[in-house]
Structure formats: structure tokens, C-alpha cells
Design a protein that fits this description.
The complex is a heterodimer of chains A (404) and B (443). With 404 residues, chain A is α+β, with helices and mostly antiparallel strands. In chain A, 51% of the residues lie in helices and 19% in strands. Chain A is elongated, with a radius of gyration of 32 Å. Classes of the chains: A alpha+beta (404), B alpha+beta (443). Chains A and B meet through helix 2, helix 8 and helix 10 of A and helix 2, strand 2, helix 8, helix 11 and helix 13 of B.
Amino acid sequence: MHLRPILSAMRRNRTGAVLIALQMAITLAILGNALFIAQRQLAAMTHPSGVDEADIFVIANDWTANGAQVRALAQADIVALRSLPGVIDAYVTNSYPLEKAGWGYMFTLHPEAHRPLTQAAAYFGDEQALRTLGLRLVAGRNFNASEIENFTGMSSKPLRGVIVTRQLAAELSATGAVLGRIVTMMPTSQTAPIIGIVDKLQVPWPAAAPAVVDNAALLPYRFLAPSDFYVIRTRPGAMAAAMKAAPAALLAISRGRIIEKVQTLTDARRADFRGQRGLAVVLALVCAMLLTVTACGVVGLTSHWVGQRRRQIGIRRALGATRWAIMRHFHAETFLIGAAGVVLGVALAVSANLWMVEKLAMQRLPPGYLLIGVAVLLILGQLAVLWPALRAASVPPAEATRTV
Amino acid sequence: MFGYYLNLALRGLRRNPILTALVIVAIGIGIGASMTTLTILRAMAGDPLPQKARQLFAPQIDNWGPVNGSGPGGAQTDDRLPDELTYMDATALMRAHVARRRAAMVEMQLSLIPADPRQPAFEIPVRATYADFFAMFDVPFLYGGPWSASDDAAHAPRVVITRALNDRLFGGADSRGRTMRFGAQDYVVVGVIDDWDPTPRFYDLGFNTFGDSEQAFMPFTNAIDDQAAHIGIRVSCGRNTIGAGLQGLLRTECVWIQFWVELPTAADVRHYRQFLLNYAADQRQSGRFDWPPRIALRDLPQWLDYHHVVDGEVRLLVGVSFGFLAVCLLNAMGLLLAKFLARSGSLGVRRALGAAHGAVFAQCLMEAAMIGLGGGLLGLALTRIGLASSTALLPETSAALTRLSGTDVAIAVMLAIGATLVAGLYPTWRAAQVQPIRHLKAP
């Protein structure tokens, strides 16, 4: 393969070659970064919440009955929900994983010393909450029934226990050995001994950074407030029937309420991550369109070159070059332009990423994404040049004799 | 002359329809993508109240000091002041007649029980605020008007509802004097506001900044009395504590109340700033703060900027789509070059017949402009599709965000033509350099 004729041909079409190389460079810069960002959105979407999502649904309940009645009614609700056919367990709470909004408390083992506080999601629940959510204790024990308090408003009364996630335990103490230690919670300045540690339990707000996504705690509260949630876990396959039966059972106990929504955690997840999925889809579409446009550019300019060089191609053919050699010429030419483009593109992609790291708190771009981008662009270039190259190869040797 | 060039341009476009189509598609896609994201960005970063933005201010007071923030060592992270006010400070600022208009406010979720027993109860977001809210934010009224300052003082159960809620409850009739029930209290409708949806919802950036706004408004003073269980659901505390019940909420150093003042002149602003400093100094004197007074007074645009209302994702998309536009233009440039050079022969003949450089230049530029127009129109169609699907794909875009205004249409077409002309300059120049003699020689 001789490069010289290719290079001299390119010198005669400098502008076109530069334009294509620049196009490929920008395409690569966008492609690499977009793939990376899309992948991060997908990772956030699929991060496991730690609970048995497939078998849990939630009822959002707003009381219109007056406050004094609510305590008795909510207790009756729980009894009714637990006895529904197909229901494994249920409890009443202030918030649940994938809710989207939630309660954040500040936790510390050193209330006096001015050490940083750790923000963590506070989930209220009784001794059945662990079983309902399908959480696994990795150390310590569950609440027992006598430790559960009624929550009717903020209070500074100490709690008799709190269950934290492994991540929160590590956050509170470098060794993670927090079992039995007393934790202080702000803003109520309540204290409680840490009695149990669960493996995973995601915070209710979506798209939390991986380092804080499992900073959560269970507080031994029966949540008796004007708006509450019932979290209900069913046996596999029994969910649909239970979702119909539950609101009816609640309304039978009292009509002094508004049932705001009945939603599975699967649907809640879908709703929470709509933004992430949207961004990933948009980025994928943009990439697809970009590649199309770039391919069109290669096809357009190369066909133009083929048209311009018909006579030269004819001469080469007349001098004995095979069709294959002509095709190889155009493929190699595109490859060279593409190679120059991707070198520039890698530089562009890295600087764009560094800018985003600086300004938008993005992560560094792993080299794998650039490699994929480089491969995609070079292959795309070769595919795009195929049709013009075939046209070039079909130029007859007689063309050499046609014109002056 | 113009008509002649136009004619030539149209002929030129027809000569190589595939190449023409490729250029138009490339420009159209580039314009479509960049206009879609630009429209979203403009709406999100836009000015929700352009006529008054520079007169509306959100006061902040350092009631946490250097030791009660949530950052390391009790410092306030990023050296920020609390974003909202405590009940103590909000009521003190309400009592002082320093600003022209002022309103403390907070959002609640309330169960509404319609007066008509056949209608089921439902939950709506309600804003508890003061009478000045409506005049300060230029809220348009369909019927009636705001409640009065004396209603604020009397803790009166009054309510102003939105047009949508009025349609739902009262079939769109003038509902002044009708009642609705929240909890155990009946509220009298005094006004119905017309469509009003400032985007972003600048006065409360805590949650749902781009989502649906509240459907009813009631006096803050009344909400403290009658809706206590629903108030102060969202508090921010740092290292401060909060006691039990309503009293705990009213006495805490945790912040939960948004506060806005209207200060029409620079002198008013200076005056108010001094007032806030004096207030903080007084609090230090009385022993509540043991740190030097620190306050901030930001106007609406500064407030939006300070809170990074436009998130990184949208900025990122804008960057991506302008990169995209650049690719499309490079592409168009290459294709136009191919298109014009392929016609060197006929251009050479025109030059030989006496057309000046300038005439050939104008002819080719006209052709580029026509392509730009085509690309712009295609881009507009794609923008419509893009905006419609972004409402479906991105949750934080309401229909209001994605309306395409006349200005947007003009920008898109101008951008397309301008960009194509710029992209066409070099190919046109090359075409105009054609040496007539070379093209006359060939058979």
C-alpha cells in the first residue's frame, strides 16, 4: 500500500479533508462524553433500593377525620391491612424508599464536639417494618413491640433503639463498630442506642450520589400524622388483588380520609427516574443523529471527489490498477482523515470532560468510552465510504482516453 | 437582480437534488437540536417576572452563626446563610413597615372538603401568605381580589383560589362569598386568580421548582391558628433543635419560611439592608446571636443564580447540541463546497460571458441562503417535535416551558440562514475564484 498517491490526492482537496476531520473530532468528543453520561444515568436508575421492590405497594393516606380519632383509626387500618388475603405484612410510616421526597435527620455520635453531622433519611416503622420491606439485618436485632412509640409530632424524647444501614454506620464511625453506641439525631436532639445494622436501604430522594445513597435509618415510631403512608408487602402474584382490596378495606374502617394514591414500588421507581431515562434517551438520539450526519458528510464529499477524479481513476485503471486497488485508495484515504480526526477528537473529548468535571461536578471520563468512540467513528467512516468507493471502482479504464 | 439570483439559486438547488437534500437535512437537524435545548434553557433560566425582577428581594439573616451550621465544625457549608427565615424573624420583618410591600409565605398540603357534599375531598397544595403577596408579584385576578391587611391582622379564614380550582369546584362561576372547608375550618373565597404560572417558581425554590404551583392561598396568620398540623413540614435546621408541637416550630432556630420584599428604588434597597443589619445587631444585643450581624439581600435574578436553578444536565445538553450544530455546519460547508465546485464549468461560462466575481459570489450566496431557509424550516419542525417529546421525557418540563414563541421561530430561522451563510462563505469564495479560461478549454 503506497501512501504517497493518497497524500498527494488529499493535498489537492485540503479543505474537504480538514472539514471531515473536524467533524469527526467534534462527533467523537460528543459521543464519548454522551455515552459516559448516559451510562451514569442508567447506573443511578438501576441502583438497588435494598427492599423487596417487586412485592411491595404503598398507599398514601390523608386524614380528614380529626386528630384525636386518627390514632385509633390508623391502628385499625394496620390490623385490617395485615389480615388481607395475600398480604405478608404492613406498617404505617412517614416515608419509604423511592418516595422521591422524604425526611432527613442529621446524625452524630458526638453531639458536643463540633464534628460534621451526617444527613440520613429517617424512616419510621414498627417491629414489622423490617419484615415488610424484606430487609436483612447484618448485625444486632430488630425492634421489639414494646419499644415502638406513637409519633404525633416532633419530640425530643429519647428513643429506645434505632437501626442504621451499613453505609451510615461507616459514616458515623470510621470502624463501623456502632452497635450499642448512642446516636444523637437533629433537629429533635433525640438520642437512641443503635441496636441493629441492615445491609442496604436507599434514601427516598432519587439520584443521590453513590457515597450517600444508603445513608438511612429506621426509627421505632408508629407514624400517626395527618398524612401517612401504608407500606404493604404481598406474596408473589397476590399484589394486584391486594391493591384492589386494600383501599376498600380502609374506606370500610373510615371514610374520613382521602386515598391519594396506591402505587407499586416498581411504578414509583419508574416515575422517580423519568428524568434520568429521558436524558439517556435524548443523549442516545443525539448520538445517533450525529453519526448519521457525519456519515452523510463522508458520503457527500467522497462522492464529489470520485466525480472530480474520474479521469485519474481511469488512467490508473488503464495502467493496470485493479478495481480492488481503487477501492483501497478511497478506504485508506478516509481512514487517514478519520485517524487525524479521532486524534483531535480525543483531545477535544478530554478537555470537554475536564471542563465538566470543573463546572458541573462530573466524573473523569474513563478511557474505555473514548476507545469505543474511536472504533465506532473509524468503522463508520469505512462503511460510509463503501458506496462512493464502489462507484470509483466501476469507472472504466476507457475514461482515461475520453477528455483532453 | 435579486429576482434573477433567486431564479438561478432555485435552478442550482434542483441541479443536484441529493446533495441539496443532504445539506438541508444536516442544517435542519442541527438547528432542531440546538433550538430545542435553547428553548428549554431559556424557559428554565428565564425571568419569571421580567417587569419587576430587580425590585423583588429575598432577605437572609444569619441566625445560625459560625457554629450551628451542618458543615464540618458547625460551620455553614459554602459560607451560606440559611435560605429561609425562622418564625421569629419572619414575624419581626412583617411587623416592620420598612419595605413597600412584604410577605412571608410557606406551602402546605391540605385536604379540601368542598361545600357541595356530592364532591369528594381531595388534597391540594396551598400557600399561606400575606395580603401583599398578590400586588407584589403582579398576580392577575379573574374575580375579586386579595384579602385585606386587616384580614391578616384578624387571622380571618379567607381564601384566594386559582382559576383551575374555581373551574373544578364552582364550574368557573364568580365564586366570591362561597365557602370551602380545610380541616375543621370553613374559608370564604375572596378572589379567583387568572392563569399565573411564573417559571421557575422563584418564591419557593425548595421543591417542585418547575412543577405545578399551589391552587389556593390563605392568610398566614390564620394557617398558624387553624392548620397548625400542616405547617412547617419542610424545615431546615443545621445543628439547631426543634421542640415538640406548634410551639416548638414557632420558637426553633430552624428555618422554614420564605420571605420577599418589594424595594422599588436603590435608596429603598440601601435602607432595607441597613434595617436588616440593625435587626441582626439588636438580636445580638438581646443575647439571641453571639456573633457579628451577617445578612444578605438578593434580588430575584441573583436569587435564581445563587440557587443554581438551571441544573447541570440542561447546560450539558445545550453544550452537546451546539457541538452538534457545529458538526452540522462543518458538514454543510463540505457539501456546499462539493456542490459549487461541481458546477465550476457553468460558473466559468458565466464569468467568461462577463459576470463579475461579485455576481458569481452573490449567486452562490443566494443559493446558500435558500438552503439555510429550507434547513431553518425543517429545523423548526424538528424543534416542535423535540419540545413535545422533551415534555414526555424530562419530568421537570411543563407545557409552559416548551411553548415556542414568535421570537423563538424568528431566532431559529435567522440562526439557520445566518449559519448557512457563514458556512457558505468559503465555498462561495472558492466558486467565485473559478478561472473562466480553464473551463472554456475543455470540450
